[in-house]
Description:
Keywords: ATP-binding, Nucleotide-binding, Transcription, Transcription regulation. One of its GO terms (molecular function) is ATP binding. One of its GO terms (biological process) is regulation of DNA-templated transcription. The protein is an alpha+beta fold. It has 16 helices and 14 strands. It has helices at about 5-20, 35-45, 45-65, 85-95, 105-110, 115-120, 170-205, 225-230, 235-240, 250-260, 300-310, 330-340, 360-365, 390-395, 410-415, 430-445; strands at about 70-75, 80-85, 125, 140-145, 155-160, 210-215, 220-225, 265-270, 275-285, 290-300, 375-380, 395, 410, 420-425. The model has no long low-confidence stretch (mean pLDDT about 85).
Amino acid sequence: MFKPFTHSEIVSRSLNRCIKYHIEKGIPKPKRTLSRKELDNLIKENNDIIKIAKPFMEILYDFLSGSGFSLYLTDKNGIVLTIIGDKDIVMEQAKAGIAEGIDLSEQSAGTNAAGTAIFENLSVQLSGKEHFINTFQIYTCSASVIHNEQGNIIGCLNLTGKRQLAHPHTLGLVVAAVKSIENHLKLNKSQSELFKAYQYLNKIMNSIDFGILAVDNNGIIKAINNSACNMLCINQKDIIDKNAYKVLYNWQYILNELKSGNSYEDKEILYSDKRRRFNLNVYPIRDKSNTVTGMVVTFKDIQNVYNLVNKYTSGSATYTFDDIIGSSEKMINLKKQLKSISNSPSTVLIQGESGTGKELIAQSIHNDSSRKNNSFIAINCGAIPKNLIESELFGYEDGSFTGAKHGGRAGKFELANGGTLFLDEIGEMPLDMQVNLLRVLQENCITRIG
């Protein structure tokens, strides 16, 4: 078992080292002093510890002001970085070599509290003739080393006064101050790590192309990404720490569902302010005891979902005007006419016998237009049962009729929004449905069944 050295053993060991270092007792001050440039560079290197330690040094100095003591902070090698004390005391100690830039390591200054504390990695108080060089023997010094989170020495705090002022409590004051500095260093590191984690999380959230927002138990929005702000046409600063009701009117119901152990996924909602549809998924946030403390909401623009589905299903056009083979004057004139109307928003009527290439023409018009990157939806009107035509074209809401799909379903008009809808065999559609279709073509607006 390790047995710690006694105070007298620590002093004796240090004095023996000084003899090996060939330190002379009569030197007027420590052997090594940094140049101004060297000190400035060292201060920059140790800026973090100086910034944290100085407020605690000032608090301790306020307690000791006028008592004949000074406080100084050294780096891990014993170089004095900064000094706080009464002006007359600081000036007097400077004559003995205790000043900024002085090297107080044992190899430079012999046995002294700061140098010995750093070498032995402990807290120590030295007074009078316990110091090696004569010029330091009029002082009492109490020093404690400062460690980082890994336990490595990064500095030392020293309290120095006339030897007549020696008291065990002065070492206790220094040790307490060092503990406060070390705790603040840990806190500072934690805050830095938290900020770094926040930056990573923020960057990840803002790189995602669908909306994300986080809501706490009180319905307060704590985070939102750029995509959500763009989709909802709001500014981040106007929504953070505001009630979620503004963007999610039923947030309380959803939170209660999650707390009850139910899921809330693949729901379709209408954003009332802008009349836009979103696909909604909500996931619970749980603490260590598995209690729901909030929720994360993700939502995608339904139109983008439709476009993605159509891109990888039948909702795309493959033919272009180059695929229409023919060099006759009528065919050349037809192509010119079709190209001239490609970008028109007007409805185009394509007539011809079965098998003459009406869909080829429709796809070519689509691919020559500004809509080519959006959906191309083709539907054979003659193949749909009469009682299903409306639901196929216009879609339906949840619970509209017996057998309706849970959550509702988008119609072909919605799927083709921004693209092209090709109604093949439209003449086979019942006349009453053609009247409804005419109204849609005139108003450019649909209403789902239910």
